[in-house]
Amino acid sequence: SSCLRGIKRLRVVFLALFLSIIYCVLDEFHLFFVPGRFFSFFDMFVNSLGIFFSSALYLLSIELRMRKIKK
Question: For the whole model, what pTM was predicted?
Answer without folding.
Answer: 0.75
